[in-house]
Amino acid sequence: TLSVRVAASTKNADIIAKHFEHHPKIRAVLYPGLTSFLGHDVAKQQMHNGFGGMLSLCIKGADEADGEARAIAVAAYTKLFKRATSLGGVESLIEHRASVEGAGTPAPRDMLRISVGIEDAGNLIADLEAALVAAFAA
User: Fold this and answer.
1) CA gap 122, 19 in Å, rounded
2) Looking at residue 21, what DSSP letter applies?
């Protein structure tokens, strides 16, 4: 079932990345399938069967600390995403990478890393949207 799972997660990641690319609460979407991604041209040459199921969202904040706090809150408010470090499973996962790596990490403090699973993309987007609303209201 690996090829079916990879195809589904890749399709979902592409839908999610495009949905949040110009979102007012998102500072950046890091996904090689977006033409706005710095390495898109290289990825297009190397990735012939899609751009994968991994993406990152950088959450807007007034400053670095605010962006970090909001990113952590978004991860906490999601209901469909599991908070874990992994990839390639059928379930969608979310993590605040800088917290996982600790002091000295090169990961942006406002970044959430997402491993997209095979759930309905619309449900995943709705979950992230609700989490963003809750994080920005807190």
Assistant:
1) 10
2) T
Q: Name the pTM for this structure.
A: 0.92
Helices assigned H by DSSP within the chain: 2-20, 40-46, 64-77, 97-101, 121-137
Instruction: Tell me the two tokens of residue 35.
Output: 């033409």
Nearest of 15, 2, 4 to residue 120 by alpha carbon? 15
Q: Spell out a b/e string for 68-97, using b for 16 or more CB atoms within 10 Å of the CB, else e.
A: bbbbbbbbebbebbeeeeeeeeeebbbbbb
In Å, how far are 21, 54, 134, 137 from 37, measured between CA atoms? 10, 13, 28, 29
d(CA 70, CA 48): 35
For the stretch 70-121, pLDDT in tens is 999 999 999 999 988 776 678 999 999 999 898 899 999 999 999 999 999 9
pLDDT of residue 87: 66
